[in-house]
Amino acid sequence: MSRSERSLLLLLISIAGCGLGLICLATADSARAYNPLARPVAEAVERLYNQVLHSTIEDARQRLPHLNDSEAIDKQYFEDLDATLSNEDYYSTAYYIFAWINSQLMAQQRPDKLLLEVLPSEKEAIRNFFLKVRPPLERYLHRSHQTRPELLTNVTRWAAEQQDSVVMSYIEFPRSLQAQLPELQLMDYTKLAKALIAGVATGIWGSL
Fold first, then answer.
1. How far apart are the C-alpha atoms of 142 and 46, rounded to whole Å?
2. Can you list the alpha helix ranges (DSSP code H) found in 64-190?
């Protein structure tokens, strides 16, 4: 594993706000099992969140063959994603590929050709995510008799954000949502990253 790859993994782990292993996943399962009011909202947020992963990855997949960039992500990782069957494994892989595509932005480095091409549509998709996710969050807060003005203010601001920083707001959103509303724990999007750090990843990812 290269230094840049390990740096990306450690950054994703820090974003998750939890340690290695299955602690986050166990917390999510517990929250879903015992909070029938929260579970459908968490699933709705996940569906909207995953739409951004889908759109960015498909955009990158279509553009990659036309780019002459040795630093761009290898197409084999997209093929491995297609072969992933488990829902959480699929989206943790998609989340990692998304982070890889945006790794220069995350590290505050000069974007590669692929990122430069996907970034405009990616940011639009992210803004749409924040625009669409606010109503179900508002309804949940009303039904659960809670107030989270900071969360709603941030979501509203991110829905209009034009700067590249909106990408980091999106990447960090599962953690920021958990901090504000722990019962709305989303799936463990950093599952693959943690497996890579622990050295237990399989398939093509095991060769990193």
1. 20
2. 75-82, 87-101, 103-106, 113-143, 149-158, 165-171, 173-180
Torsion angle in degrees (nearest 10) through CA of 53, 118, 63, 115: -100
73: containing domain: 3-207
Torsional sign, CA 207, 202, 51, 152: negative
Tell me the pLDDT tens digit for each residue of 170-192: 999 998 999 899 999 899 898 88
DSSP secondary structure letter of residue 73: P
Rg of the chain over Cα atoms, rounded to whole angstroms, equals 17
| Burial group, residue 207, by CB count within 10 angstroms (0-12, 13-18, 19+) | exposed
Burial 50-76 (b: 16+ CB within 10 A, else e): bebbebbbebbbeebeeeeeeebbeee
Predicted pLDDT at 173: 94
How many domains is the chain built from?
Answer: 1
pTM for the whole thing?
0.84
Distances (CA, A) of 26 to 30, 33, 68, 104, 190: 6, 11, 43, 32, 13
